[in-house]
From TrEMBL, chains A, B:
<dbReference type="GO" id="GO:0005507">
    <property type="term" value="F:copper ion binding"/>
</dbReference>
<dbReference type="InterPro" id="IPR006121">
    <property type="entry name" value="HMA_dom"/>
</dbReference>
<feature type="domain" description="HMA">
    <location>
        <begin position="2"/>
        <end position="67"/>
    </location>
</feature>
<dbReference type="InterPro" id="IPR000428">
    <property type="entry name" value="Cu-bd"/>
</dbReference>
<keyword id="KW-0479">Metal-binding</keyword>
<dbReference type="GO" id="GO:0006825">
    <property type="term" value="P:copper ion transport"/>
</dbReference>
<dbReference type="InterPro" id="IPR036163">
    <property type="entry name" value="HMA_dom_sf"/>
</dbReference>
<dbReference type="Pfam" id="PF00403">
    <property type="entry name" value="HMA"/>
</dbReference>
<dbReference type="InterPro" id="IPR017969">
    <property type="entry name" value="Heavy-metal-associated_CS"/>
</dbReference>
<protein>
    <submittedName>
        <fullName>Copper ion binding protein</fullName>
    </submittedName>
</protein>
């Protein structure tokens, strides 16, 4: 399992958290998504390393932005 | 038709707006709900005057608060 922490900007409430969690959770191989709303830190547990593009696309789909790492 | 403007606190994003709109829109007699996110102003068009209690309960149900008028 791989655990990666991303930073997502623009989330303001638990609805935002739910949207991001749902979209990232739909990426193949993702088994867990944890979001810390105050910091925007999103921890993703996956079977294998994810491509940043896949994560970025999911975050965009939810209506938010992935910060550069 | 009666048009009343309430102030709802705690909304931060369009998901919040959607939740409040849905809950207030479910009150019997309500035909239109317009929300201005920056100010929290919620304009409700209804067939007859609504009770503040009904509106307060709907806003609470959505997870937000009705400001005192």
């Amino acid at each position: 399992m791989t655990e990666t922490v991303y930073t997502v900007t623009g989330m303001t409430c638990q609805h935002c958290v739910a949207s991001v969690t749902e979209e990232i959770g739909a990426i193949a191989g993702v088994s867990e998504v944890r979001v810390d709303l105050p910091t925007g830190a999103v921890t993703v547990v996956s079977a294998a390393e994810l491509s940043d593009d896949a994560v970025r696309a999911a975050v965009d789909e939810a209506g938010y932005s992935l910060a550069e790492r």
